[in-house]
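Appendix B. One record, verbatim.
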Amino acid sequence: MTHSGIPCVLLCCGSFNPPTILHLRMFEIARDYLNENTDFEVIGGVLSPVHDSYGKKDLCASDHRIEMAKLATSSSDWIGIDKWECAQSSWSRTVQVLRHLSRLLEVYLHRKEKISFKQYLSIYDLGHVQCENPVADESRVMLLCGADLLESFSVKDLWSTDDMTEILSTFGMVVITRSGSDPFRYVYENDLVYRYQKNVHIVTEWIPNEISSTAIRRALRRKASVRYLVSDAVLEYIEANKLYTNS
């Protein structure tokens, strides 16, 4: 398949417990920005649910989170999910997921069949794509996140310097602004991030949205409506499987 710009895939890592409309909105904002302001052409977006061993409070089983992510992205022709992270023997570092997806993108771009990257995500063999070093000149996987994740680079012992450096230098980030954060100032004040500032794309969300999975779970526990905060398909799945009902 031919592309007018450097093929780029956006990766969003997280619990997706459950996935909300805000998760999908981030992809749309990021794609618009990159396609209009950079040499990249976004050809795919990927939700990567975290492994069960992550141990986050109230984290429901990966089987449920994978299915909800599939349902949440079912109406999109370019955003899909990757089960690789959940299929590993234990929790994976973010940079490992980026390496995996970069290798996957490289293999996809050399396929003869004309299918979308989202379609390829659903058919590739999990066991045959290894975490090898990507060829960044031909394509790019970028980490899509909120400003809070970028600012977590300063949290002691949360990220290794090597991982942060690789994420910033090899992959790059697309950071969506959120109320109460100032990612522009953070980039200026953090020496490591400032060094690679050309690879950090800060995108302003002009229509603020404070929806969070935590708030969704709280509302569900209290039997309050969450319709239009998650997709109808996700809501039906939650209700059918009686998820997030325990206090």
